[in-house]
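We emphasize that the prediction below concerns an isolated chain of 495 residues; any contacts that depend on oligomerization or on bound cofactors are therefore not represented. The input was used exactly as deposited, without trimming of termini.
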Amino acid sequence: MNNIIINGESLTLEELAAVARKRYTVKIDEQAKDKILQSRKIVDKIVKENKVVYGITTGFGKFANVKISEGDCSKLQRNLIMSHACGAGDNLPTEVVRAIMLLRANALSKGFSGIRLSTLQTLIDMLNKGVHPLIPEKGSLGASGDLAPLAHMVLPMIGEGEAEYKGERMSGAQAMKLAGISTVQLAAKEGLALINGTQVMTAVGALNVYDSINLSRISDIAAALTLEALRGIKDAFDLRTHMIRRHDGQIVTAKRILELTEGSTFITNQGELRVQDAYSLRCIPQVHGASKDAINYVKEKVVIEMNSVTDNPIILENGDVISGGNFHGQPMALGFDFLGIALSELGNISERRLERLVNSQLNDLPAFLTKNGGLNSGFMITQYAAAALVSENKVLAHPASVDSIPSSANQEDHVSMGTIAARKSRSILENVKRVIATELMAACQAIDFREGYKLGKGTQAAYDTVRAAVDFIDKDKIMYTELKKVTDLITDEKF
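Result of the prediction step, given as a token string:
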């Protein structure tokens, strides 16, 4: 069985996706266990000496000035979980829940949170045995971390809430019993250690980044096919042009288009048919490249966050306990807003290329890519639907991170809205995926109207893959089923 070792330092995006989607199992690094045990000793010492330390022997938020007795420390942590579990909306997908559990376990394994090793092991056992808490998607301000959704994650650990186990929804207590995992009586600091962090926004956003990297590659394939279908000009992709601007994403995109179209006889030279192409063709490297650079920036920030301590308070190795603000989601909020904008632009330019494929006033192809126009509508309404999706994205791309609202009696007076930003970027990604699938399907349809030409090395492989899923549309048929086939196709990483 595939196994991922976590130590809070080196978790990768690829490992996260493997645990979330392929059910890889997780183990704590042996050296990390020593750090966890040492951190817990400090918490136990604080409780025994009756020191006043936030979140350990005090209440939370505005109640930080309320002293809690040693006898009530455990009850305080249980109350924290139950009172904070007040999420709303649909439950997060199982893959996101698994990513959340992994990220929280990874952060706790760094040894700055004061959790007991046995409690952390319970969370990992749940992940490995497939006990997936039901976590509502809404209710987090993104500071102090993702309190409400993470509280739902913890409920089954203490025998409460609901969970999914082997595909069935049931009580958290029943799921734990069926999986053979003992529930936990939380000790001092443990409830706070489990829920005070940015793992929900980071889990949603990290999977989005992973998928965005793949989708940006597919957008290049769709663009190359459209370029050939419209007999576009290859001179605009001459690397000498892009090297003198020096943006990495732009250079990478130009190289990919040239590689995909290598050997093509569809592609034309400058002045052969036209002097210049429209921007949606000519500026593919500049637009796709800018989105690639943005995605890579967000990836860098996400990987940092995946291996960070986002607790409050933080237990340092020398015994110092510091109340800071590492739970604040602003680094992720800004990144996920940026991700949504970058994805929106991939959709915007794809929809414009789609318009050039279906609009006979802009090409020399049959109107709406159908043989018997009038009786058949062909691809006419696919462009409508794509236009609706990209217009919706313009609304969704409005940044969540510029908003804030005070909470906890104004003690927590600036929040990130990072979880909303992450969720919005997911919606944008799904919309863009459908738009690019539509462009792919339309480009292949357009190519079939041209005879006597040869596709490029890469575009031929892409064309064959699409045609294995959907046929040339000779007469009108129910389009959403065909579009879904191509959407599912590009969701598969093998594409």
